[in-house]
Design a protein that fits this description.
Blueprint (H helix, E strand, L loop, with lengths): L2 H82 L4 H82 L4 H13 L4 E5 L2 E2 L8 H8 L4 E2 L6 E3 L2 H11 L1
Parallel strand pairs: 1-4
Antiparallel strand pairs: 1-2, 3-4
Helix pairs in contact: 1-2
Bound molecules: zinc ion.
């Protein structure tokens, strides 16, 4: 393998690894949102269920209070009838007292019933509102989950392709260079950089004259300052110069 083919392949390998990292990051992010969306849907369902149960409890409470109010009403009517049929003043006083007590209880029961009705109404509104809001929210979340699942699938496919490309590429690079590349890759995100204007384009350390000579002969050398692999590409240097103006 000539020097030029070597640095070109190392450069492609670095791009490939960079893309793999980027796709893996995107995949993790999509999976995270996917999980969060699922949790939100579950929370919404639990919240609706809680409000529904509350509504049912309030309904039961109203039924109970109505029953008690009805019982007291009957009791009161019975006392009135009894009062109309008393035989003595003494008995009248006693029944009258009982009637007053039942009437008081009935008044209190009416208040309790009104309160129960109010609580039922509040619980019903809260349940209906939650249910109404959750329909749209759940639909949005479900749509997002499907989009994220599709995105993850696409990313996985791209990763399979990139790994295959990498596998082929790796076979073209001498093992000693791969070892050096892997070591460098763990330290910096851009292990192979061009020489631009006679300097390392990453740390801007000036390349020695004799090194530049070797690089121009398609050699690869480590930067004496940052240890990144350096190569020289006339075209790339021209492009950078053009971009600068
Ligand atoms: Zn450098």
């Amino acid at each position: 393998m000539t020097g030029k083919a070597l640095w070109q392949n190392l450069k492609i390998l670095a791009e490939c690894d960079h893309n793999i990292l980027s796709l893996e990051k995107q995949k993790r992010e999509a999976q995270k949102i996917f999980t969060t969306d699922q949790e939100l849907i579950q929370k919404l369902a639990i919240s609706i269920e809680e409000k529904k149960n509350r509504f049912r409890q309030e309904q039961k409470n109203v039924d109970l209070q109505e029953l008690q109010a009805h019982d007291l009403k009957i009791k009161e009517e019975a006392k009135r009838t009894q009062l109309a049929n008393v035989g003595s003043q003494k008995e009248y006083q006693a029944v009258r007292k009982e009637l007053d007590r039942v009437s008081r209880d009935r008044d209190e029961q009416e208040d309790a019933l009104l309160k129960a009705w109010h609580q039922l109404e509040t619980a019903q509104k809260s349940y209906e509102l939650e249910e109404k809001n959750s329909v749209g929210r759940t639909a949005d979340l479900t749509e997002d989950i499907q989009a994220k699942a599709a995105a993850v699938q696409t990313l996985e496919q791209q990763l399979v392709e990139l790994h295959a490309k990498r596998e082929t590429l790796v076979q073209t690079i001498p093992p000693e260079w791969l070892v050096r590349y892997d070591r460098m890759k763990h330290n910096v995100p851009d292990p192979i950089v061009p020489v631009i204007r006679s300097s390392c384009s990453s740390c801007f350390y000036a390349v020695l004259h004799q090194d530049l000579y070797k690089l121009k002969k398609s050699d690869i050398l480590p930067c004496r300052s940052c240890y990144r692999f350096l190569y020289y590409d006339q075209e790339e240097e021209k492009d950078v110069a053009k971009a600068a103006y």
